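[Meeting: bench + compute handoff]

Bench side (C.D.) handed over the final construct sequence. Compute side (W.E.) agreed to return the predicted structure before the next meeting so the bench team could plan truncations. Sequence as handed over:
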Amino acid sequence: MRRIILLLLAASALLASCGTTRLTPEEEQARKARVARAVNTLDMTINITEVSRSRTYNAEYKIYLDGQHITTRLPFVGQVRYGGISELMGDGTVLLENAEIYNIHLDRSEVATKGMYLLSFQAKRDIRTIYTFNISVFDNGQADIILSTTNKTSMRYLGELSFKTP
């Protein structure tokens, strides 16, 4: 019985390793170059794969950057703070349509050691609401997004770059 279990475990490990795709060094360099170009031009699409530790595969959650503007629709769950008082907000949505981005800062100092770009910028939907995006883009195409907004708790999203046009 023990041999059968060990044999099944070995077979499943072998099948799992065969199912993964590994990039050749040339493909990996090409991917790194596409990520660098997307970050440096601020022209990218990030498909959101996880929202605040909850898996999501909803195709509607994306961030589009075209160099000067952002378009996004993201879920936002948390608390609203007014004058030191917090109350549960419940489900909400961050909706930005072709909003101009400003206060753009791109830090490339972590690329050599961690393979990571740090991008931060702000966008407004109206006079009172300012959204601050802090995005860590890794050279493998993964992204970690922290979204802070006026009078609300921050949200975290994980995603991956898509190199197709929206």
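W.E. noted at the follow-up: The CA atoms of residues 59 and 148 lie 22 Å apart. C.D. will use this when planning the next construct.
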